[in-house]
Each structure stands twice: as structure tokens, then as C-alpha cells.
Specification:
single chain, 202 residues, alpha/beta, seven-stranded mixed beta sheet, two-stranded antiparallel ribbon, 9 strands, 39% helix, 21% strand, globular, binds flavin mononucleotide
Length: 202
């Protein structure tokens, strides 16, 4: 049984839609996919706490981290979660789990890479095994489906121009497809990694 946890914060819905698309991809490989949303309400006096979410993360084989890019880095709500989850670092509970990351922002660049770099460092501190995005930008193959249209390899990026008049969040169709492929890739990598672990232990 391969269990994938997708843990993310989303203020206005784009990162949430991306997380759902990643889950669609992961479910092509395993039925055990948890979507775990971090919210500001889980933070009291600056400290994040949600025992149910932590229990699910502790037993997952892979954790996919997602945050919108705020001022070139992870959102404060997500950072509060990441810092609180350092409790798992003391016991090395997440060591050797598969890790991956995704982000969303309004500008084409928007310094999204800062978010992915931080998430990959965070995973490395836990001793996790980071998997990148792995999709060649489809335009290089003459395709127009928009897969990896932003050319991101460390993790998955999406972009939606800021809608100043409000309204429902929407995802670019290429970003949605990129996220689905990403979810499938991470689940496949996790399955493979778990088989190796069993073989080595035998
Ligand atoms: C506090 C704040 C900081 C932001 N900083 C950036 C930024 O550095 N780069 C960028 O391109 N967009 C920035 N944005 C825009 C968000 O990344 C964008 O609206 C994104 O879609 C939010 O994701 P969400 O819908 O999942 O909350 C910022 C938004 C907020 C609220």
C-alpha cells in the first residue's frame, strides 16, 4: 500500500485546485491519497497545531508540499505548519520518505523558485528524498498542451494573473495537466522506492 499526503495552504484557491489535480494524478497509481489543507485557524498564538494532520503525515510514504508564493517565499501560514512539524525532525520520523513541492503565483516569474528551493531544503533537513517535476516543456516538442509551460524542474509551478475584481479561482489547463503528471510521477516514484526498501531489508 502506497500512501501519498498532499499538504498545502491556499488563500484564494489556486494552490487548492493544483493540489486536487496532483491528487488526480496520484490516484492513477494508488487509492491512498490524502489532501491535507493548512488553514490560519489551525494557528493559535503563532503556533500551528493539528494532531490529525500530523498523524496522517507521519504514516504517509510521500509528502507533497504546496504553498502559494508570497513575497518570493512560502506563505506565513504554511511556514507556521513547517516549523511546527519540525517535531518530526527530532525523531527523524520523516527520514527516507519521498518529498516533492509545488507553488502558484500571479506573475510569470514572481520569484516562485524561492518557494521551491525552500521546500527542497526543508525536505533535505528531514532526510527526505526529493523528486523533481520531470516534464520536458511540451512546447519544445511542438505541442500546445501547456505542460511545464513555465519551465520548472525542481517542482511544479502554476501561474494565474491576479484577478483584482475577485471571483472564482481558475487554473490554466496546462498547469492542471502538469500537476496531474506530477502527482502520477511522485506516486510511481514512491511505489518504486518502497519496493527497493523491502528488497534491501530482505
Ligand atoms: C501577501 C501576498 C504576497 C504575494 N507575493 C507574490 C509574489 O512574490 N509573487 C507573485 O507572483 N505573486 C505573489 N502574490 C500573488 C499570489 O501568489 C497569487 O495570488 C496566488 O495565486 C495565490 O495562491 P492561492 O490562490 O492558492 O492563495 C502574493 C499574494 C499575497 C496575498
Amino acid at each position: 500500500m502506497t500512501t501519498i499526503a498532499i499538504v498545502y495552504f491556499s488563500g484564494s484557491g489556486h494552490t487548492h485546485l493544483t493540489a486536487e489535480a496532483i491528487a488526480v494524478g496520484s490516484r492513477k497509481v494508488t487509492h491512498h491519497v490524502d489532501l491535507l489543507r493548512i488553514t490560519g485557524e489551525q494557528i493559535t498564538n503563532g503556533r500551528w497545531q493539528d494532531d490529525e494532520i500530523m498523524a496522517k503525515l507521519n504514516q504517509a510514504d510521500a509528502i507533497i508540499f504546496g504553498s502559494p508564493t508570497y513575497m518570493g517565499g512560502v506563505a506565513a501560514q504554511f511556514k507556521a505548519f513547517l516549523d511546527a512539524a519540525s517535531s518530526a525532525w527530532f525523531t527523524q520520523q520523516w527520514k527516507d520518505k519521498i518529498a516533492a513541492g509545488f507553488t502558484h503565483s500571479s506573475s510569470l516569474s514572481g520569484d516562485k523558485q524561492g518557494t521551491l528551493i525552500y521546500l527542497s531544503i526543508y525536505a533535505a533537513q528531514h532526510g527526505m528524498v526529493w523528486i523533481g517535476a520531470g516534464e520536458h516543456p511540451s512546447s519544445y516538442q511542438g505541442k500546445t498542451d501547456g505542460v511545464n509551460r513555465l519551465g520548472s524542474f525542481l517542482g511544479t509551478m502554476g501561474q494565474t494573473p491576479m484577478n483584482l475584481s475577485g471571483g472564482e479561482a481558475v487554473l490554466d489547463s496546462g498547469d492542471r495537466l502538469t500537476a496531474e503528471y506530477f502527482g502520477q510521477r511522485i506516486a510511481q516514484a514512491t511505489k518504486r522506492w518502497n519496493l527497493e526498501k523491502v528488497a534491501i531489508a530482505a
